[in-house]
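so i finally got all the pieces together for this one. its two components total, 338 residues if u count the protein bits. some of the lines might not be protein, just check the labels. i wanna see the whole assembly predicted at once instead of chain by chain like last time, that was a mess tbh
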Amino acid sequence: MIVADKKPIEEIIEMVKGYRKILILGCNECVTVCEAGGKKEVAVLASALRMYFMNEGTKIEMDEITLERQCDHEYLEEIRNSMDQYDAVVSLACGVGVQFMAEKYFGSPIYPGVNTCFMGVTEERGVWSERCQGCGQCILDRTAGICPISRCAKRLLNGPCGGSTKGKCEISKDLDCAWQIIIDRLKELDRLDDYEEIAPIKDWSTERAGGPRKVVREDVRQ
Amino acid sequence: MRLQYPSNINIIKLPCTGKIDLIHLLRSFEKGADGVYVVGCLEGACQFTSGNIRARKRVEQAQEILEKIGIGGERVRMFNLSSSEAPHFVQVAVEMTEKIRDMGPNPIKTAMQKAA
């Protein structure tokens, strides 16, 4: 899932100051799971903003809606008929949802209510960590299902660097060395010979360095 | 024991403090409560293992938000005591009432009255 973190409320207050009617728009997908932008967080943010502005003596109206997703046309269409009544929207979706809202409702101010961080997993409640950088050319078949692109600080493709110590990365003692895990797993799978194979130079053109990306699939396109 | 505690306190009974969500605490203030305190079982004694620990974290989240929006984080607190500690319950009720009385009324309540 896409992992997001809560944005400090003071930042959001600064963004919406001056508007009279605001929509707080949540997303029922990834940001709900990582407890940053789901229905509960929408209610909390709306309540906090209402209290802040009431205390400031500013009359402000706030509506709360949580869509199934904010990254698909059909769900964003659900609010089309009510969009006119809002001076601004605070979207608690990931950056994708915020942008899709901004593209779809071009004349409405859309503000981000979360900080979008990465694609990752829930290690435990309250702990999320990165697992994929969307490099566009998956090599997990060669690395025993552990990604050195997202989990190695140097994104090395042929084993660990000299900074790997006791299974930990040199940038933090709390960070596992991805290559240590890869080797451990190759051993477990009895595939350690694969480690001897030199990985070819990776084609980075499919990664973000090649500019904004797009997937077009004619087989499913309508 | 028939102990007396301040009559301004409105008790909301829950099966476990773990039922409390952050929004419940915030809505209390939005509706004009001057202070809210959560009384849970002693830490380590939760029948549902971690309800009171979760409640504590939610109280801390509420404190942070209330502080940032100018209502005052000290208006919400968590206390842990067992059901056999009636004198402690009274002590907490008195302590919290005095604390909130010192802080004055919830500014939201005052703002709502002004706006009306």
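Residues 17-115 of chain B form one domain.
The helical segments of chain B are 22-30, 51-68, 86-103, 107-115.
anyway lmk what u think
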